[in-house]
Amino acid sequence: MEKLNSGLILHNWQRKCVAILTAIVMWFFVNHSITETKTIPNVPIRIVNLPPDKTIRGLLPNRLLSKRVTLTLSGTKDVIQEIEPGDLEVLLDVSTADQDEWIVQIGKKNLVSLNPSIDLQHNITQVTHNEFVLKLSRLVTEKIPIRILYPTGQAPVNYEFLNIWPQKLMQTLSGPEDEIQNIKAQGLEIIFDLNEVTKSDLDHMTSSLFAPHNDEVSFFIPRKWQKVWIPFSNTYEEINDPEAESLRIDFLRKEILPLQKEIPIRVYYPLQYSNTLNPKTYPLSHNEMVLQKNGINILSTPLYARDVSQLFLDIIKDYLEIIIIASPKNERELLQWSLEIINPHELENTYIAFLVAHLAEENGGESILSKKNEYMFRQRFRDYIYRLSLYISNDQKFHLESFLEKDSITVRTVL
Question: What distance in Å separates the CA atoms of residue 43 and residue 40, rounded to the nearest whole number?
Answer without folding.
Answer: 7
